[in-house]
């Protein structure tokens, strides 16, 4: 079996450490690395370079390329990474584009359980959790001596940089109330967010790094802080990648989460509220050693090698199903392989 991951954009797909922001590119890089480790020939190519055959699995990560693949008669697996279709809602042009990409696939993958219910008019969509490189995202050797809060995210949504999807205002207001330093790390989109919400920059203990730092620098931030904040109101990953990175680093988390899988060290917010965040942060600091110890014991649970093992089973199902099978038959064959 051969796998082709189709290039989704113009962000370079690089090795860990040198990478900058680009969750889809990170995922493709990890898929390729661990598929090769598991004996699968995996290449990353542009769609116009794809020459499919019976032994080739084509995996696409953006909807518009699925439409092109359909025109070319290329069967494919589709991974849906787009949260803005939820923001625009059912019946929107983006929702319809995503739905057509899913329906045109042999089957599709999403990384948030809530998306399964959102796209409820198709039975081709299956859940696969994100992973983390636990060999790279490692705990710091010494205990955290200083109380410092960290947020790692690219804010905004659907081209509107002012939408506070990641809860920066909540995080900063909580830090103010607790009188704690807070660092917010991410892409240039965050600089535009703070241009719109410039009042937030008045907090003297706030540090903003909107330089799109490398993975190496991001790892340093995880090591330099003691609690990770994630009061987001919309995610397309349950859990998303930064939660898993924080877990792998043994950095306790206070955040929102609507998934069913247990995330060790995560104190789930019952409401997106400053007082709720403060209460959870104080609980973490009062129980820090116990929380961190459990995180470190179970930190490899979502390693990419395990997650890609599930993906490999999906590819095996892909080859058995074939594009001529009815949707229900494809579903049953997939489930039989995935759950074996």
Task: Describe the model.
The protein has 340 residues and is an alpha/beta fold. The protein has two domains: 2-131 and 304-338, Rossmann fold (3-Layer(aba) Sandwich), CATH 3.40.50.2000; 149-297, Rossmann fold (3-Layer(aba) Sandwich), CATH 3.40.50. 41% of the residues lie in helices and 14% in strands. The chain has 13 helices and twelve strands. The protein has helices spanning 23-37, 63-72, 84-88, 93-103, 113-118, 168-178, 188-196, 215-224, 241-248, 274-286, 288-297, 304-321, 327-338, and strands at 2-6, 41-45, 56-60, 77-80, 107-110, 125-127, 149-152, 182-185, 206-209, 227-230, 253-255, 266-268. A six-stranded parallel beta sheet has the order 2-1-3-4-5-6, with helices on both faces. It has a six-stranded parallel beta sheet with strand order 9-8-7-10-11-12, with helices on both faces. Strand 3 (56-60), helix 2 (63-72) and strand 4 form a beta-alpha-beta unit. Helix 1 (23-37) crosses helix 12, helix 6 crosses helix 10 (274-286) and helix 12 packs antiparallel against helix 13. The longest helix has 18 residues, at 304-321. The protein starts with a strand and ends with a helix. The model has no long low-confidence stretch (mean pLDDT 90).
Give me a quick take on this structure.
The chain is of the alpha/beta class and 340 residues long. 41% of the residues lie in helices and 14% in strands.
Number of helices: 13
Looking at the structure, what is the overall shape?
Answer: globular
Topology as a string of helices (H) and strands (E): EHEEHEHHEHEEHEHEHEHEEHHHH
Which structural class matches the secondary elements? alpha/beta
Number of separate strands: 12
Radius of gyration: 20 Å
| CATH secondary-structure class of the largest domain | Alpha Beta
Residue windows where pLDDT falls under 50 for at least 5 positions: none
User: CATH H level of the largest domain: which superfamily?
Assistant: Glycogen Phosphorylase B
Q: What is the strand content?
A: 5-15%
**Widest sheet, order of strands:** 2-1-3-4-5-6
Total count of domains? 2
């Amino acid at each position: 079996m051969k796998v082709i991951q189709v290039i989704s954009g113009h962000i370079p797909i690089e090795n860990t450490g040198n990478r900058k922001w680009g969750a889809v590119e990170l995922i493709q890089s990890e898929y390729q690395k661990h598929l090769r480790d598991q004996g699968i020939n995996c290449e990353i190519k542009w769609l116009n370079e794809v020459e499919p055959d019976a032994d080739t699995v084509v995996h696409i990560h953006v909807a518009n390329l699925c439409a092109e693949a359909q025109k070319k008669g290329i069967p494919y697996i589709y991974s849906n990474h787009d949260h803005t279709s939820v923001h625009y809602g059912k019946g929107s042009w983006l929702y319809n584009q995503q739905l057509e990409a899913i329906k045109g696939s042999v089957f599709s993958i999403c990384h948030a359980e809530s998306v399964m219910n959102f796209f409820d008019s198709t039975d081709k969509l299956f859940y696969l959790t994100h992973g983390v490189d636990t060999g790279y995202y490692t705990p710091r050797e010494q205990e955290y001596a200083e109380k410092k809060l960290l947020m790692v995210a690219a804010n905004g949504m659907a081209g509107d940089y002012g939408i506070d999807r990641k809860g920066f205002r909540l995080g900063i207001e909580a830090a103010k109330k607790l009188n704690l330093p807070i660092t917010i790390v991410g892409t240039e989109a965050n600089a535009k967010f703070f241009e719109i919400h410039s009042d937030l920059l008045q907090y003297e203990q706030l540090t903003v790094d909107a330089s799109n730092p490398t993975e190496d620098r991001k790892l340093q931030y995880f090591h330099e802080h003691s609690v990770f904040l994630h009061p987001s109101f919309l995610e397309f990953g349950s859990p998303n990648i930064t939660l898993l990175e924080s877990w792998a680093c043994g950095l306790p988390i206070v955040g929102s989460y609507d998934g069913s899988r247990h995330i060790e060290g995560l104190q789930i917010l019952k409401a997106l509220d400053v007082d709720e965040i403060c209460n959870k942060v104080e609980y973490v600091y009062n129980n820090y050693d116990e929380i961190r110890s459990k995180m470190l014991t179970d930190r490899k649970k979502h390693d990419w090698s395990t997650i890609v093992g599930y993906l490999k089973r999906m590819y095996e199902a892909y080859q058995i199903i074939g594009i001529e099978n009815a949707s229900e038959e494809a579903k049953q064959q997939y489930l039989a392989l995935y759950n074996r």
